[in-house]
Design brief:
The structure holds two protein chains of two kinds. By secondary structure, chain A is of the alpha+beta class. Chain A has three domains: 47 residues, Uridine Diphospho-n-acetylenolpyruvylglucosamine Reductase, domain 2, CATH 3.30.43.10; 111 residues, 2-Layer Sandwich (Uridine Diphospho-n-acetylenolpyruvylglucosamine Reductase, domain 3), CATH 3.30.465.10; 105 residues, CO dehydrogenase flavoprotein, C-terminal domain (Enolase-like, domain 1), CATH 3.30.390. Chain A contains twelve helices and 15 strands. In chain A, the strands form four sheets. In chain A, strands 4-5-10-6-7 form a five-stranded antiparallel beta sheet. In chain A, helix 5 packs antiparallel against helix 8 and helix 11 packs antiparallel against helix 12. The longest helix of chain A is centred in the C-terminal third of the chain and has 20 residues. In chain A, 51% of the residues are buried. By secondary structure, chain B is α+β, with helices and mostly antiparallel strands. Chain B folds into two domains: 77 residues, Roll (Ubiquitin-like (UB roll)), CATH 3.10.20.30; 64 residues, [2Fe-2S]-binding domain (DNA polymerase, domain 1, Orthogonal Bundle), CATH 1.10.150. In chain B, a hairpin with a 2-residue loop joins strand 3 and strand 4. In chain B, helix 2 packs across helix 5. The longest helix of chain B is centred in the last third of the chain and has 14 residues. Classes of the chains: A alpha+beta, B alpha+beta. Chains A and B meet through helix 2 and helix 6 of A and strand 4 of B.
């Protein structure tokens, strides 16, 4: 492991380092992904920019229209946050599903998103929630919807000189029901083979809004708005739930890895979308 | 690879060391400080044998660069006993025979200390969830659970 380790103690210092070293540099936050990749020689950066000394990037800030979460907030702090547990239970749940306590004590939200590992829990929940990522460089700041931020296998829209500086999660409609289902095909501590995050709002029996994100089964987690819209203004009957599940199963280009074949994942998407929507219809919050 | 001089606070004592940039905390603790209660096993944060506490929180020292924890308080199994007296969690593990080969034991004990720091009275589900990331390949889980139960403020 031959690299230069930079540990800037300010955001401008980090942005300057990234602007200077660009493609040659990797950002180190918690380390659970980067140190693992370094150890396994999957990456060989010449410069590692550690962001751990930058102050004020770990926060969970509640606002009337949603919450801002700082990129250095650990997954464990998200899982344990009363604000997140109360207002975004599926995010608390998905954060709490990652790895083990030690990993969650180290891994950060910004690191989790920037790594863009397809087999990770939080991005799917965050996608369903309509998350916006703010990226900053010396050139300025821009806000990117998560669906445009995650662009492929371990690939994001971040430019080499950009750092995630804020993550905004808009509030869901009052009374929304949410769920996060993680399907594991191997051991209990494994990453998901497929996962489903779903949010629905209802007026009496009628579904007024539905958002479903399916992750870990393809290169990036996916929402299918055309399929989601089938639910709008309708009661979630078994038939309609089956139709929506088929929409997701049939339209996601599933991948194959040690956790399951592409065919198997398609079946697991169908089953778990059904289970998620039944849970929402039947009223679990 | 560039070496850097840094100061670590380990088990309440400061150590100033030359550390290569890419060195993990696991390597530094074992090789430079000879704290071999920190064990090297899976190398991917899954097994828990390299668990240490950083400012009271359990982390995997195999996934941490030493430079990341400069000036933070690091606790290893060697730092738990005070004045020749075992920490109550260590004593409970002995009293309940909560190990066989004991390779995993330092990690389990440190995770238990972190758990009790967050929640002095965890129920069985909380104990199981918290310790799920520590593996014991001898399968001493039942005795480990009994040892942790005995450490609760309210023991049943």
């Amino acid at each position: 492991m031959s690299f230069e380790l930079l540990q800037p103690d300010s955001l401008p210092g980090a942005l300057k380092a990234l602007a200077q070293h660009g493609d040659e540099a990797k950002v180190l936050a918690g380390g659970t992904a980067i140190v693992l990749m370094l150890q396994q020689k999957l990456i060989a950066p010449t410069v590692l920019v550690s962001v751990g000394r930058i102050p004020d990037l770990a926060y969970i800030r509640s606002e009337p229209d949603g919450i801002h979460v700082g990129p250095l907030t650990t997954l464990r702090d998200m899982e344990r946050s009363l604000v997140i547990q109360t207002h975004f239970p599926l995010l608390a749940q998905a954060s709490g599903e990652v790895g083990n306590i030690r990993v969650r004590n180290q891994a950060t939200l910004g690191g989790n998103l920037a790594e863009a590992d397809y087999a990770s829990d939080p991005p799917t929940a965050l996608l369903a929630l309509g998350t916006q990522v703010t990226a900053t460089s010396l050139r300025g700041e821009r806000t990117i919807p998560l669906e445009d931020f995650l662009i492929g296998f371990y690939t994001t829209d971040l430019e080499p000189d950009e750092l995630i500086t804020d993550v905004f999660i808009p509030a869901s409609a009052p009374g929304s029901r949410t769920t996060y289902l993680k399907y594991r095909s191997r051991s209990s501590e494994d990453r998901p083979c497929a996962c489903v995050a779903a949010i629905a709002a209802f007026e009496a029996e009628t579904c007024t809004d539905l958002r479903v994100a399916v992750g870990a089964a393809s290169e990036v987690p996916q929402r299918l708005p055309a399929v989601e819209n089938l639910a709008r203004g309708q009661a979630l009957t078994d038939e309609l739930i089956g139709e929506i599940a088929a929409g997701y199963a049939d339209n996601i280009d599933t991948l194959e890895d040690i956790r399951g074949s592409a065919w198997y994942r398609t079946q697991m998407i169908r089953i778990h979308v059904v289970r998620a929507l039944e849970e929402l219809r039947n009223g679990r919050r | 690879m560039s070496d850097r001089t840094l100061t670590l606070q380990v088990n309440g004592r400061p150590y100033t060391l030359e550390v290569p940039s890419g060195q993990t905390l696991l390597e530094t603790l074992r090789e430079s400080l000879e704290l071999v209660g920190v064990r090297d096993s899976c190398g991917i944060g899954m097994c828990g044998t390299c668990t240490v506490l950083v400012d009271g929180r359990a982390i995997s020292s195999c996934l941490t660069l030493t430079a990341q924890v400069e000036n933070k308080h690091i606790t290893t199994i060697e730092g738990l006993s005070q004045d020749g007296q075992l920490h109550p969690v260590q004593q409970a593990y002995i009293d309940h025979g909560a190990f066989q080969c004991a390779y995993c034991t330092p990690g389990f004990i440190l995770s238990t200390v972190a758990l009790l720091g967050e929640n002095a009275n965890p129920d069985d589900a909380a104990i199981r969830e918290y310790l799920a990331g520590n593996l014991c390949r001898c399968g001493s889980y039942v005795n480990i659970l009994n040892a942790v139960r005995a450490c609760r403020t309210i023991d049943d």
